[in-house]
Design a protein that fits this description.
CATH architecture of the largest domain in chain A: Orthogonal Bundle
Shape of chain A: globular
CATH superfamily of the largest domain in chain A: Winged helix-like DNA-binding domain superfamily/Winged helix DNA-binding domain
Number of domains of chain A: 2
Largest interface: A-B, 82 and 83 residues
Largest sheet of chain A: 3 strands, antiparallel
Oligomer: homodimer
CATH topology of the largest domain in chain A: Arc Repressor Mutant, subunit A
Chain lengths: 187, 187
DNA sequence: CCAACCTGGATGATGTGTCAACTATTCCCG
DNA sequence: CGGGAATAGTTGACACATCATCCAGGTTGG
């Protein structure tokens, strides 16, 4: 009755006991949190989390228009993912594609009015639920720890031999991670 | 150039600055880590992460056979998810379905030899990569913090008004979370 | 016994993510 | 200028997740 979750036996045998407890707790939490945020988003607005993420990027630019691959790079998505997703969003009127005059192969993704109102409607509830589910549970020290832990792992992921996905999108540019407090491992 | 990631403006306006930093770092890390683990798993073995999770559950039982909904409950998956996934795995020979004698509607999911050897082949590399990507980056204190943070959020997710998904599978039984060191918030 | 209901599970539609291949442009170099 | 090579983006096939719906086998109350 202790195998509430995967990784009970096989995996965690090669991790220290505290490590395996932490890993199982993390994986489980992360899965539930993602599911919960997605569901909540699609319940109290008409968009999904991926829609939301795209719309945020567009909202962040002054003119609400971004080149497709630029979007991919900012979001750490692969180009086919962004392409497919933009196609779906276009079908629903959340964005629109426009040809790029200066580069014949390129195109812009442009925020529509519908898209703008959709994200404005969705954002407050999302922020609220993140606060309620995550930050209301944590002390200041834990918030700091969450940040540091995330940065360390992320840095490891985008450094050295394992930059795979990311490498597909920004090729030469290793990845724009602000060191900020690296204390970077030997890898 | 600071909008490396979603949630830059719209969302995080309603979180404290340190909270928004932590949230963005977490979301980004979590996305990359999931992607990386999945890719790695399918590169150096013939199974996916979801396959792996199912196989772990089966391996954990003495006889390698579990009722479908029991599996769903253990993994916090919804029944249709497990049903679809088992169907795909069956097609590849990793598991097999067997009718349940004592209950005419029920069926067991049974680990096959192929399934057993698949997970035995996949597990070491997976454990190794988790260690390398995660635990090699963290101090003991951080491992502890990761555990505590995850537990707090998970507890909040599975307590009170927001037990939605989970509620779909274990109905009456609120959820089997061992308190273990709750220090549970007022929620 | 049988009708209403509940439960275990399967199914189909749709949205999403990944990979591999493809097209069309632009760039670069001779 | 011309012919690769790189770049921007699309497409199709497939794996995966969710939802709503369905069905068959149990359970219960009359």
């Amino acid at each position: 009755m202790c195998q509430l979750f995967p990784y009970a036996e096989l995996v965690t045998r090669w991790l220290e006991p505290e490590q395996q407890r932490a890993w199982r707790a993390y994986v489980r939490m992360q899965g539930e949190l993602n599911a919960h945020l997605s569901r909540q988003m699609s319940v109290d607005s008409d968009i999904s989390m991926p829609d939301f993420a795209v719309l945020v990027q567009l909202t962040d630019t002054s003119d609400g228009r971004v080149r497709v691959l630029e979007l991919a790079r900012q979001m750490h998505w692969e180009k086919s993912r962004i392409s497919h997703h933009v196609a779906r969003m276009e079908k629903r009127g959340l964005v629109r594609r426009e040809n790029c005059g200066s580069d014949g192969r390129g195109s812009f993704v442009v925020l529509t009015e519908l898209g703008r109102s959709a994200i404005e409607a969705a954002a407050p509830a999302h922020a609220e639920i993140v606060r309620a589910l995550v930050f209301d549970q944590l002390s200041e020290a834990e918030v700091q720890a969450l940040h540091d832990i995330s940065e360390k792992i992320f840095t490891r992921l985008t450094t050295g031999e394992c930059a795979s996905v990311i490498a597909r999108c920004d090729a030469d540019d290793p990845v724009e991670v602000v060191p900020e407090e690296s204390g970077c491992p030997e890898a």
